[in-house]
Design goal:
With about 200 residues, this protein is mainly alpha-helical. The chain has one domain. It has helices at about 5-10, 20-30, 35, 45-65, 85-90, 100-110, 115-130, 130-135, 145-155, 190-200; strands at about 160, 165, 170-175. The protein has a three-stranded antiparallel sheet with strand order 1-2-3, covered by helices on one side. The longest helix has 25 residues, at about 45-65. About 30% of the residues are buried.
């Protein structure tokens, strides 16, 4: 096991800091969604990034279950696995700055098709808007949304069909959060490592 894998297995974040909210919006609006919708070059790495997002999101759900006697997902709960508002569970008082949220919404409405992409992007923005104090009562779990943003940057959106998250030539089975907790962590999120996944 590499040091990165060992750290991720212990729940340590893959990077020491989260993306700033304004920088995150800059990254998303810089994606050429029209070209990306037809891009299959990065299918393997995008599928692996989705598995990493599911793993990290599942780690957060497991942590929430420790302090909340009620299931995170269930009757009367509006959140939908797997693209849910993790930040709201951490601190419901914190929301993204209105101007940044409006900028993101305007861009998504004009360029990015699909409800899932919008939900995931908005959840990522709320996550980036959390102050460090809000996360202080939780163990240093990995940033759940960085793999998802990288996935979008490497080929745009995605869809869910027949229980799979579809990347044209690659698919990821969508099951309950419990099934993703034990997924092996991705060794690296670097462009070099992700490009190597696409070549294999």
């Amino acid at each position: 096991m590499t040091p990165a894998e060992a750290g991720a297995e212990r729940g340590q974040p893959a990077s020491p800091t989260r993306e700033r909210p304004d920088r995150l919006v800059d990254r998303i609006v810089a994606i050429d969604w029209r070209a990306a919708e037809h891009d299959v070059e990065h299918g393997a790495s995008r599928a692996r990034l989705m598995r990493e997002y599911l793993r990290r999101a599942a780690l957060w759900v497991r942590e929430f279950q420790k302090s909340d006697p009620h299931p995170v997902f269930g009757v009367g709960r509006p959140e939908n696995w797997p693209f849910f508002d993790i930040a709201r569970r951490v601190d419901p008082r914190v929301r993204a700055e209105a101007a940044l949220a409006a900028r993101l919404d305007t861009f998504l409405a004009e360029h990015a098709s699909g409800f899932l992409v919008g939900a995931a992007s908005r959840a990522a923005l709320h996550w980036a808007s959390l102050p460090s104090e809000s996360l202080g009562r939780f163990p240093p779990l990995p940033d759940p949304f960085e793999p998802l943003v990288l996935l979008l940057e490497r080929g745009g959106g995605f869809c869910i069909e027949n229980g799979f998250i579809d990347f044209v030539a690659h698919r990821v089975r969508l099951t309950s959060w419990q099934d993703h907790v034990a997924t092996p962590p991705i060794p690296s999120l670097s462009p070099v490592a992700l490009d190597a996944l696409d070549r294999d």
